Amino acid sequence: xxxxxxxxxxxxxxxxxxxxxxxxxxxxxxxxxxxxxxxxxxxxxxxxxxxxxxxxxxxxxxxxxxxxxxxxxxxxxxxxxxxxxxxxxxxxxxxxxxxxxxxxxxxxxxxxxxxxxxxxxxxxxxxxxxxxxxxxxxxxxxxxxxxxxxxxxxxxxxxxxxxxxxxxxxxxxxxxxxxxxxxxxxxxxxxxxxxxxxxxxxxxxxxxxxxxxxxxxxxxxxxxxxxxxxxxxxxxxxxxxxxxxxxxxxxxxxxxxxxxxxxxxxxxxxxxxxxxxxxxxxxxxxxxxxxxxxxxxxxxxxxxxxxxxxxxxxxxxxxxxxxxxxxxxxxxxxxxxxxx
Length: 340
Hints:
Layout: H1 9-17, H2 19-26, H3 31-57, H4 82-111, H5 117-142, H6 147-170, E1 179-180, H7 184-210, H8 227-254, H9 259-284, H10 289-311, E2 314-315, H11 328-337
Antiparallel strand pairs: 1-2
Helix pairs in contact: 1-2, 2-4, 3-4, 3-6, 3-10, 4-5, 5-6, 6-7, 6-10, 7-8, 7-10, 8-9, 9-10
């Protein structure tokens, strides 16, 4: 085993001034390590959403009645607070695990050689979203689970998932300018799909804000809407997303698109079918907590699958050394994209 060199005063000062640069100068992670770090950050972004849903569905939203401490006198929950205190405080602790995962992704991206500024920025974007959502989560508690703040909390978590999914994809790509694999009309169809999916998720938060699962056993303000009517609108939007996904798959087959976009579209279609089945069952069974939780998890998967469809419409290969011909997959995509 190699001996770890002693740090000189200059090294120590450099580590304090810029710890990321200090680590990057002494460590080069394997590309698989960077990809795994980005994937872990994405997984934790989903986990924090699901566990946050568990807090609400178990009525533990005010298990810790204040923030940033759990009670006025204690930073953590106490035995007298019961199971709800453990659930809420446990979810707060998972935020630190999420921060660690995002931090690991930032360090791995920053230490990769050659240095990729775009990848590091995606990691920092996740960090600031996590920080913002932590503060928003505290506001949710301080205002007694106001449904509008709860909805904003979920939507910001969805933004985190999107950025994490993009970073995970970018770890498997190069830094050349993106090369389109499909025509402009197909791209416009996918952007329409993304837009309706965003609207679908947003309306889903309204269903939550008007529905019976307020997040606590006390009297909690609800959105002044009939949740069943909003649920029907949510279902209509879901069918529009399914229809657009099927139309996209049909168009991709018709233009003989590469396997990447086709595979991602098929994955989205299957996830939508499963999510739709859960949605209808929970609606007709009066929203049992376990199915609502599964639907929240499915919402994360639908959003990730949608982002992956969008990212599959182009490729960003590594730069080929001068004088070498394009690799086969590059030549194929170049012919599909046409002259630029």
